[in-house]
């Protein structure tokens, strides 16, 4: 894995690089898309407890900065004429702010810093030259990029200007960036600002014969195919999908089914808002790189802004149904919406009541019931347990700590599965370490590390790959860290990544120790973009459910009947005989019947059932946002920021 890097002070260089790539959208469309989280469909939604068979999952917040400042400039390149009012651009940002306010429960807001009315570009810069227009504008107004700062260029829609838009896609929601669009369409603005928030496109997958796409099978992926997500092709402010919300770090009340038996849960609609229980998630037991999300989308989920800016291309919402999304292998934390095989209709991603979807590795999702009045769906999910003897990447189930973490970084950034986030010991040097701790014994046999760089060795600054690193294991018997034989690596100056394989070791924690390149603070610290630990976990330990204990019914106690006393015959004076007998038998039997009722019918037996709970951690879920410090290294581990629709 190649790890690229750059410094925080290189904002202008970043924007120029970012604004050089463009994806065209349909020539008829110039209003980009952005679904929004509308007001709750159910008043005061109540979170469903995880309950038996589920564990709660925490998706850490990623956005440190609440208030994003936006500068909007209306530019008329040569050959074009102003065609809309500045107030339309202002109103557009107000709608976008309302959308993200509802969607993130106030965690992300957009405020207008300045609005520049029409400026005529006095240089021969084409309307499609977004990099050139941004550079011209920056120099003209002295705009400086920075954390949570956005520069939006709007041009007249129509010839000679393009019908597409684009936006910088950095690695963190707080990074800020530039966008470009024809016209003031708020949906387009929400979409491109979504790229500034690090959001990828919301795509879809439709295979010919199965809902899921098996390893090695190429199924067509539509980059904008999720028509119910603002980062896809919704063309309206519908509620965001679960992977998109998770990327922003605002997805709450997430549950994961315990492997093994079928697990039944109730899902609130996406439109129910952040307090609701809207999502189930888990990883493929045979492919931990594949994460699945199950959510319920109700046809009545409201459109934010009350449809104040309707689009002729917005998705038709007539069907309520459950959706399954799978992590996109081509885009970290992106999501592919799975579609019904062979179905090309508008509602081909909705699973309706009574349907069962078979996924890879024996996983299934059944929709038991959809209640459009309560805006809820009942689903039953089956996830087989992973084979503990299979070697796999077990990093996601570990908790990461470090010898030192600057305030803009986190140890979790090295194990979150996103090469765009970095743990760094900057400005410290010497031996610095990362620890990975599991909740029980694991067997480890291979470790891969991708390192970050933003300076050459001879520059003696920022992040430089270390001179070497080694793996240590925790020895519980001695209470010491022991070096793992054969687990030492010297990075190449040209390719700062590598892997070590060694004889299997069984432990509950490992430590990666890095020997920094620099000899004094600020002269070359270690940065780690990604770690993968391959091994085996111990078989899952789930407390068995105790047997159902039923209080035994007390024995029926019936007073013994007294012996029947037969009176001797009575001889009356006339010499006749009156037979002896007893009338007590009937009364005695009635009394016994009353006692029997009291013993058996007066109190129902009580049943005590104990349910086991299993605690886990969301694989690769720890994603702490990085604050911006002007003097610290800025790291990018991917190619230049993405510009898209």
What do these coordinates show?
This protein is mostly beta strands. 11% of the residues lie in helices and 29% in strands. The chain is built from 6 helices and 29 strands. Strands 1-9-11-12-13-14-7-8 form an 8-stranded mixed sheet. Strands 18, 19, 20, 21, 22, 23, 24 and 25 form an 8-stranded antiparallel sheet that branches. The longest helix is centred in the N-terminal third of the chain and has 18 residues.
β-strand amount? 25-35%
Give the CA-CA distance, first to last residue: 27 Å
**Rg estimate, integer Å:** 33 Å
What is the mean predicted local confidence, pLDDT?
78
Report helical residue fraction: 10-25%
Strand order of the largest sheet: 1-9-11-12-13-14-7-8
List keywords for this structure.
645 residues, 6 helices, eight-stranded antiparallel sheet, mainly beta
What's the helix and strand layout?
Blueprint lengths: L10 H8 L35 E4 L9 E10 L9 H18 L5 E12 L9 H12 L7 E7 L10 E2 L9 E6 L3 H11 L6 E3 L15 E2 L19 H7 L5 E4 L5 E6 L10 E6 L2 E11 L23 E7 L7 E4 L17 E3 L5 E8 L4 E7 L9 E2 L5 E4 L20 E2 L6 E21 L16 E8 L4 E10 L7 E19 L11 E11 L11 E2 L19 E2 L5 E2 L5 H17 L6 E2 L37
Parallel strand pairs: 2-3, 2-4, 4-6, 7-14, 9-11
Antiparallel strand pairs: 1-9, 5-6, 7-8, 10-17, 11-12, 12-13, 13-14, 15-16, 16-17, 18-25, 19-21, 20-25, 21-24, 21-25, 22-23, 22-24, 26-29, 27-28
Helix pairs in contact: 1-3, 2-4
């Amino acid at each position: 894995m190649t790890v690229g890097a750059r410094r925080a002070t290189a904002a202008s260089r970043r924007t120029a690089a970012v604004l050089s790539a463009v994806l065209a959208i349909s020539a008829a469309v110039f209003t980009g898309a952005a679904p929004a989280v509308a007001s709750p469909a159910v008043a005061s939604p109540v979170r469903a407890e995880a309950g038996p068979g589920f564990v709660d999952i925490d998706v850490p917040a990623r956005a440190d900065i609440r208030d994003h400042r936006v500068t909007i400039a209306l530019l008329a390149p040569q050959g074009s004429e102003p065609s809309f009012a500045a107030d339309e651009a202002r109103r557009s940002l107000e709608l976008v702010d309302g959308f993200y306010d509802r969607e993130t429960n106030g965690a992300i807001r957009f405020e207008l810093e300045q609005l520049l009315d029409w400026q005529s570009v006095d240089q021969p810069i084409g309307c499609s030259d977004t990099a050139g227009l941004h550079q011209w504008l920056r120099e003209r107004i002295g705009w400086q990029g920075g954390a949570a700062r956005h520069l939006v260029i709007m041009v007249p829609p129509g010839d000679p200007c393009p019908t597409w838009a684009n936006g910088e896609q950095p690695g963190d929601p707080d990074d800020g960036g530039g966008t470009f669009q024809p016209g003031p369409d708020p949906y387009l603005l929400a979409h491109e600002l979504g790229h500034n928030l690090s959001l990828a496109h919301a795509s879809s997958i439709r295979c010919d014969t199965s809902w899921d796409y098996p390893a090695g099978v190429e199924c067509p992926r539509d980059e904008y195919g999720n028509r119910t997500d603002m980062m896809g092709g919704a063309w309206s402010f519908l509620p965001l999908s679960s992977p998109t919300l998770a990327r922003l770090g605002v997805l709450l009340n997430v549950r994961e089914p315990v492997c093994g038996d079928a697990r039944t849960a109730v899902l609130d609609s996406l439109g129910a808002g952040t307090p609701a229980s809207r999502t189930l998630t888990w990883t493929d037991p045979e492919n931990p790189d594949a994460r699945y999300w199950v959510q319920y989308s109700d046809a009545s989920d409201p459109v934010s802004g009350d449809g104040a800016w309707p689009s002729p291309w917005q998705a038709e919402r007539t069907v309520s149904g459950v959706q399954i999304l799978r992590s996109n292998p081509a885009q970290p934390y992106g999501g592919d919406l799975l579609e019904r095989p062979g179905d090309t209709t508008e509602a081909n991603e909705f699973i309706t009541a009574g349907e069962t979807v078979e996924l890879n590795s024996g996983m299934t999702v059944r929709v038991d019931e959809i209640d459009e009045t309560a805006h809820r769906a009942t689903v039953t999910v089956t996830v087989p347990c992973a084979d503990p003897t299979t070697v796999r990447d077990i990093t996601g189930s570990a908790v990461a700590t470090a010898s030192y973490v600057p305030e803009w970084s986190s140890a979790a950034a090295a194990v979150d599965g996103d090469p765009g986030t970095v743990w760094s010991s900057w400005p410290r040097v010497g031996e610095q370490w990362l620890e990975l701790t599991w909740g029980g014994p694991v067997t480890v046999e291979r470790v891969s590390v991708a390192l970050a760089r933003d300076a050459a060795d001879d520059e003696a600054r920022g992040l430089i790959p270390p001179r070497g690193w080694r793996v240590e294991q925790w020895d519980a018997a001695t209470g010491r860290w022991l070096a793992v034989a054969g687990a030492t690596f010297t990075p190449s100056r040209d390719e700062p990544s590598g892997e070590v394989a060694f004889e299997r070791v069984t432990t509950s924690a490992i430590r990666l120790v890095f020997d920094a390149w620099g000899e004094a603070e600020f002269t070359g610290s270690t940065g780690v973009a990604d770690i993968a630990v391959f091994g085996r976990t111990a078989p899952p330990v789930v407390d068995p459910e105790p047997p159902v204990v039923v209080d035994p019914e007390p024995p029926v106690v019936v007073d013994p009947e007294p012996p029947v006393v037969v009176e001797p015959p009575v001889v009356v004076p006339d010499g006749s005989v009156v037979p002896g007998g007893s009338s007590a038998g009937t009364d005695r039997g009635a009394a016994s019947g009353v006692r029997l009722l009291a013993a058996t019918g007066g109190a129902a037996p009580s049943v005590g059932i104990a349910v086991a709970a299993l605690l886990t951690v969301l694989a690769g879920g720890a994603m702490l946002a990085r604050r911006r410090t002007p003097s610290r290294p800025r790291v990018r581990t991917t190619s230049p920021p993405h510009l898209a629709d």
